[in-house]
What we know:
The protein is an alpha+beta fold and 267 residues long. It contains eleven helices and seven strands. Keywords: DNA-binding, Transcription, Transcription regulation.
Amino acid sequence: MTLAQWAGPARWKAELPHSHDTHSILWITRGQGRCLLDGIRRGVGVHNAVIIPAGTLFSTDLARLGFGLVCAIPPSEAVPMPDSAQLLRLRDVHAQSELTTILETMQREDKAQRPFSDEAMRAHAVLLGVWLRRSMIEQDPDPVRPPAAERLVRAYAALIERDHATGKPMADFARALGVTPTHLTRTCRQCAGMSASQLLTQRILHAARSLLEHSDHPFNRIAAMLGFRSAAYFSRFMLHHTGQTPTQLRRESHGAPMPQAGERGFG
């Protein structure tokens, strides 16, 4: 699919940290921006390939006029993927052409829906996995161990992805990582461009907005699912960080009109 189709019309869906249950390979052919991969903020631009394994915390903030292709591969397809997110900056024209050809061929196959399309898509996905492993070797034949700061933030990002709905404060995550909240915050600012608390808050916001948009759960149920003490506290949290109540956010996502004067909506 195109990058715009994958990201969706609402910018918060791409710009707030979250994860997908599929492996994703992004191929940027126009424009530039930034992305957060495993808690590490990086600049991205033309002829960059971003590889995001399933369950990896990430976000993207790309120019509106940018263009690219995305391939989403279910983990059940057993296509070999790296253990952590990767950013490949492709300078070789042949490598650029190979990736573009594979993705455009998959796009045509997916749209045509001819007989044995599933088998063809699976074969192309395997070929894509081969291209990926070759490109990683060519770009970094002797990978160096990431610095301690990056290892800490990646570990924190993994904990956030696993436990963001438990209601744990940032200090509990720092304790689990064996560091002080101050050190974790300083390291996150250095590597992620935001504090440790902001990274956790933004992940919770994405989960909350997704539940408000894609489920009909009552607000007290969503609050409990995300570890909030009460629906009232959840409502205050959303109002503080978005400027809108859960009712307003749900109505907005469904394209429903807001209540007229005299109507009442609850949190």
